[in-house]
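Predict the 3D structure for this chain.
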Amino acid sequence: MRDKHRVLAAALGALLMARGGVGRSDPAPNQGAQGSASARYRIDAAKSRFVVETETSSLALMFAHDHRIEAREFSGVAKFNPAGRGTASLELTVRADSLRLLEEKTIADRAAIENALREDVLETVKYPEISFKSRAVTFERRGDGTYDARLTGDLRLHGVRRAVTIPARIALEPDALHAIGIFEIRQSDFNMTPFSFVKGAVVIKDAVTISFDIIASRLP
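Done. Predicted structure below.
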């Protein structure tokens, strides 16, 4: 799992560089004067991505198949002021029933897994939203003009609220904020039972990895 995290983190870093968020030595255009008020940003779901990656354990290796699941509908507001600490925050809400499977071989397989995810794991009728609200954000400016941040807050999932800490790399662009990151949660921490296939021969592991690539537009 750690190796996979390193590979994915490298890929996310490359993506941020390709978008122009890394490698700049000049200050971000909207950094503003020291002591200025925090800028507010609205997440653009059409330009952003949240992906959940699972690992599969199997008694028969021929059935083992990891899955990538993407959230399609989410919204949120971020606040960020590079002038000082305690001036950043994030509130995010995801529609639980908007999670969709990526890269599955057949339509039937995709439908079966998505149905199990909605009805047996997430129970989306009973728990329609997944949300995160930060309580504390610390960040440090890097030499390339981006920021290494740590967001500590409450993740509400499947009717359970737990404190989590999420690392992120933040880049300020003209009238926009770009953030990428990766973190891990355990389904059992949120009273969820990982689903299984082939009469229990194939089981999704408890730990899942969540990666995000967020673009947020600055509000007036």
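The CA atoms of residues 154 and 163 lie 5 Å apart.
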